[in-house]
Amino acid sequence: AKMPVVHEHSERMKKFKNKGKDTAALRRQRVEVNIELRKAKKDEQILKRRSISIVSLEKSPSPAEEKNTVSIAPLSLEEIVEAVNGSNTSLQLQATQAARRILSRQKDPPLNQIIELGIIPRLVEFLSRTDNATLQFEAAWALTNIASGTSEHTRAVVEGGAIPAFISLLSSPHMHISEQSVWALGNIAGDGPLYRDALINCNVIPPLLALVSPVGFLRNITWTLSNLCRNKNPYPPLQAVRQLLPVITCLLEHKDKDIVSDSCWAVSYLTDGSNDRIQIVVDTGILPRLVELMGSPEMIIMTPALRAIGNVVTGTDEQTQAAIDAGVLPVLPLLLRHTKPAIQKEAAWALSNIAAGPCQQIQQLITCGLLQPLVELLDKGDFKAQKEAVWAVANLTTGGTVEQVVELVQSGVLKPLLNLLLAKDSKTILVILDSISNLFLAAEKLGETERLCLLVEELDGLEKIEALQTHDNNMVYRAALNIIEKYFSGEVRELLLLLI
Amino acid sequence: MFVTDCRREFYDVIVSQRVLLLVASDVDALCACKILQALFQCDHVQYTLVPVSGWQELETAFLEHKDQFKYFVFINCGANVDLLEILQPEEDTYFFVCDSHRPINVVNVYNETQVKLLVKQGDDLDVPAYDDIFRDEEDEEELSEDESDGSEPSDKRRRFEEEVIERTARRRQRREWEARRREILFDYEQYEYHGTSSAMVMFDLAWIMSKDLNDMLWWAIVGLTDQWVQDKITQMKYVTDIGVLQRHVSRHNHRNEDEENSLSIDCMRIAFEYDLRLALYQHWSLYESLCNTSYTSANLKLWSVQGQKRLQEFLADMGLPLKQVKQKFNSMDMSLKENLREMIEESANKFGMKDLRVQTFSIHFGFKNKFLASDIVYATASLMESIEKEGPETTNFIKALDSLSRGNLDKLHQGLDLAKKQLCAIQQTVASCICTNLVISQGPFLYCSLMEGMPDVKLFSKPVSLCLLSKYLLKSFVCSTKNKRCKLLPLIMAAPMDVEQGTVIMVGIPPETESSDKKNFFGRAFEKAADSTNSRTLHNHFDMSIIELKTEDRSKFLDALISLLS
Fold it and tell me: Per the record, where are the segments of Acidic residues compositional bias (chain B) (predicted)?
C-alpha cells in the first residue's frame, strides 16, 4: 500500500533529517565557485611582484621544513650567495638546498629576491655537475620554481642559459633529475610562443619523446608536451606538431586520467586554429577516440575532449563530417543536459557549428534526436549555454530546408526562443529576431504565415517583439519593427479600416 | 545569532513592519503569543497570526506568505532545525525565533544576518564553538585543490616542498577535524530538551520596555506552568523560574488586604501559592482529583484493589467524610476547607507522598473566580487538542487562545470540563495498560502500544495528550513494577493515528527518575532507526521525539531501535 502524503513528505523531510550531510553538500558547491576565484587570485598573485623583507624570510618555515632541517640552521640570503659562489662543494650544496627550500615553501616564495642575488647563472652551472647528482637535482628544482613565476622570472632562468643545460639533463641517468628537467622545460615552454619555439629550435622534442616509456614520470612529460603544443601567434611549427602528434595519440590511450586529460588539452590546442591545422589532427584518425573521451564521466577528460571536437567542427564541412562520422552526434545530448553550465555551453557551441553546415548534416543532427535537448537547453539552460543554443537555432533556420525548419518548430522551439527575447543582451536578441524572420520565410513558402503569426501571438511573442520597438539598441529596434510591419500589421490595418 | 538587546534588535525592528506570527500548538506558545499580541495592539503593529502544528504547516505557511512578508516571528518552533535550509528565504527576509526547543541548530546560532534567536540570557546552551564546526572556506580551498573540475591545466607549476607528504598530512588533519566535528555535533544534538519558557522570554521583553501588565505576567506564569505540567523542565529550573516570576508578582500585586475587599468585578489579582499538586481540585471534587492526578494515583497504585483500599485509608487518616470528599469542592464545608492543605499534606507524608505541595500561583478574577496556573494549563491544552470536530483546523487553536483572555470565562470553563474528561481518560488508560501488562520491556526501553478500539484511543492521536498519557503511564509503571532495572528505562508509546492511511503516532520519553534532567535522546534515535530501515516515517512535529510512522513499518523500526540503543 502506498502512503503518498507521508512518504512524499518524509522524502522532503530528509532534507533536514540529515542536516550535516546537506550543509556539507552546500559547502561543496560553494567551494567549487571558490576554486575558480582562487585560481584567478593565484594567477594574479603570480603576476604580482613580490616584495618581502629579508627578515620575514628567515622566520615562518613550513612545518615540513622544520621537520627536515632540524640539524641545519637556515641560511640567510647573504650566506647563500656566498656559498653558491664559493668553491666548497658541500657548502654549495647546502646553499642550493637552502635556496630551493625557500623557493618551494607554500606561501610567498621570494622569487625576485633570489633572482636579485644573481645566483641563477651559477645554479645553471651546477646543472652540468655530473659528478654531483644531488647538487644537479637541487639546482634543477630551484630553477624550476623560479621559472614557474611570471614571464620576467622565466626570462631570468632562460637568460641564465638554462635551456641547453636542461635539455642535456633530459638524458641524465638519474630518473629524478631528468624528471625535474622535464618539469623545468614545461615551465619554460608554458611561458609563451617565444620560449616554446626556442625550446623546439634547441631540439627539445627528440630527447623528450625518448623519455616516453611505460615506466617513469609520464604525467610530467605529457604536461610538458602539451605546453609545447600550446599558445598561438604564432602556432608551434608544423614540423614539431607532426613530431608530437603520434606520441600524443598514443598517450590518449593511456589508463591514467591525468595523462589522458593533458593529452586531450594538447589536441585541443592543436585544433584551435586554421583549417589546415585541424586537418593534421583529423588525418591522425583520433577523432573516434576523442568522441569516446567526450563521454567520459571524468570532468578533466570530458572538458578538453569536448573542446577539441568543438574546434574540429568549426572547420570545413568535410572536417565536420569527419567528426559526425566519428559519432559526435549521439554523445551531444548527454553533454547538453550536463549539470555543469560550462559543459552545456561548450556542447551547444559545437552543436551550433554543426547546425551551420549543409542540410545533410542538419538532417543527421535531427535524426540523432538533438532538437529535443536543444529546446530544453533554450528553456532551462545556463544563460551562456542559452546564447549558444540561440545560435544553433539561427544557423539551423538559415541553412535548413523548409521541412527541417518545420520539424524544429514542432519540437517546441518557439516558446523558449520567444522567452529569451527578455534577455538583457542585445546581440542575443538580434540573433533571435533573425531566427524568427527565418521562420516566417519558411512559413511563407508553405503558405502558413497566418498560423505562425497566431502561434507567436499565443505564446506572448508579439507582445515581446512589440516591446522591443522601444529597445535602446537601434538594430534591435529596427529588426523588431521589421517583423511587426511585415507580419503583424495586416490585422491592425484591417482594424483601422473598420474604424474608418 | 542570539539577540542581545531584545528591544533594539527585535521589537524596534518589527514595530514598523508587517509581521507574520507563526505559533506552535502548545500552551507556552499561546501564552507568549498573547503577550506579543498585547504589545502589538498597544503599538498598532500590523501582524498576521498563523497557527502551525508541525513542520509541514510551517513550511506551507511560509511559502504562502513569503511574498507579502519580510519579517517572521516563530514562537516555539524553528530553533532546532536549519531554517535557511528548509525554508530557503530571500536575503531580505528575517526570522525572529522565540523557541524553547533545544538544542538550537548551529546554523541558526551562527547565521549573522537572517536568523535572530530570542533566548533568555543565562540559559545553558553549550553551543559548540564556531571554529569547531565551521571551517573557513580558505582552508577548504587548498584541500580540494586536486579535485578535478575540468579547467585548463596551469601553464607553469611550482614544485612544493615535500608536496605529497604535506598534502596527505593536511588531508589527515582535515579528516581528524571532521571526525571531531561529528563527535561534537553528536554530543550537542544527541539530547532534546527545553530552555526557558517562551512566554517568560516575551514577558521579559514587555518588562524591559516598561509595558508589562498583570495579564502578561499571568500568561508568563501559565507558560512556565505548562512546561512543568508537561514535564519539559527540571524541578530545579521550575523553582528558579518561579522565583523570578514571584518578584514580578509582588511588584504588580502589592495592594494591601483592605483593598482586596474592594476589588471590582473586572479586576484581577495574582498571588503566589504553596498549593496542592492535585489536578483541577478546586473545580472538581477532591475525590475525583485525587483519583485522576498522576502523582497520587501512581503513588497509591489506584489501578489495583489494594490501591483503592489505600485511598480509603488515606481519606480516613485525614478525617474527611467520604460524602464531603465526593462532592463538588465548592460545596464542601467551609470548616473542612480551612486547614485542608495542611491536613492533606500531613497524611500524604505518611503515605509516602512527600511532594504533594508545590509552589505555584493563583489568579482571582473579580469576586468569585479563582484558578491555579495549572488549571489554566489543563483547560487550554484540552481545548487545543479537542477531538470534537467543529469548523476549520484552526478552530481549536483560536478557542484555546481565547480562553486565556479574562473576558472568556465560558471558554475557560468549557476547557476545564474537557480537561477533566481528558484526565479521566488518561487515568483509565493507564490503569488498563498496567492491569493488562501492555507495558513491555524491550531491553533498552519500555514499549506500550495502544490498540485500535480501546476507549478514548482517538484522544491520544494528538501529541500533547499522548505525551501526557506517556508520562503518567511511566510514573505509574515505575510505581507498579518490582523490576529495578525497568524502573530506570525510558518509554516509547504508540497510538493509532490515521486508520485509513494506516499510520501510528509514536513518542519517546526519558526515564522517570528523581534527578531526571528531562533530556530526551529519542529524536536522534528515531531518525537513525528510520534511516537504517527505510521506514516510512514523518518527522513533522517540532519535538523530534514525536513521529508518525506507517503501521506496517513499525516492527522493523522497533527492531532497529532496539539494536541501536542496546
Answer: 136-152
Between B406 and A413, residue with greater pLDDT: A413
pLDDT of residue A491: 62
Which chain A residues are Cβ-neighbours of B539 within 8 angstroms? 10, 13, 17
Q: Give residue-wise pLDDT tens across range B415-429.
A: 999 999 999 999 999
Residue B461 to residues A330, B230, B469, B505, B546: CA-CA distances in angstroms?
Answer: 56, 17, 11, 6, 11
ipTM of the complex: 0.72
Three-state SS at B92: coil
How many other CB atoms are there within 10 angstroms of residue B258's CB atom? 7
Strand (E) positions, B455-501? 491-498
Interface test with A, best of B156, B531, B545 (most A CBs within 10 A): B156
* pLDDT number for residue B391: 74
Closest CA to A341 of A387, A295, A297: A387
B198-208 helix and B214-229 helix, angle to the nearest 10 degrees: 160
Put simply, whether A25 touches B (Cβ < 8 Å) is: no
> How high is the mean pLDDT of chain B?
90
Does the pLDDT of residue B165 top 70, yes or no?
A: no
C-beta neighbour count of B333 within 10 angstroms: 11
Indicate the SS3 state at residue A13. Answer: helix
Bridge partners (DSSP) of residue B369 are: B365
In whole angstroms, what is the distance from residue A375 CA to residue A362 CA? 15
Please tell me the predicted confidence (pLDDT) of residue B125: 85
pLDDT at B307: 94
Could you tell me which chain B residue has the CA closest to the CA of A151? B156
Residue B268 pLDDT class (50, 70, 90 cuts) = confident
Residue B2 has pLDDT above 50, yes or no: yes
Q: Which residue of A has its CA nearest to B156?
A: A187
What's the rounded Cα separation, in Å, for the pair A138 and B382?
83
Residue A265 near chain B (CB below 8 Å):
yes
Question: Closest to B148 (Cβ–Cβ): which among A65, A300, A342?
Answer: A300
CB atoms within 10 A of CB B391: 9
Is the Cβ–Cβ distance between B379 and B416 less than 8 Å? yes
Asked if A16's CB is within 8 angstroms of B81's CB, the reply is yes
User: Does the CB of A3 have a partner CB in chain B at under 8 Å?
Assistant: yes
Q: How far is Cα B224 from Cα B28, in angstroms, rounded to an integer?
A: 7
Q: Which residue has the cell 628544482?
A: A141
Task: Report residue B421 as a C-alpha cell.
Answer: 474528561
CA distance B136 to B142: 11
Distance CA A357, CA A325 (A): 14
Answer whether A252's CB lies under 8 Å from A293's CB.
Answer: yes
CA–CA separation, A124 and A139 (whole Å) = 7
Q: SS3 of B64, please?
A: helix
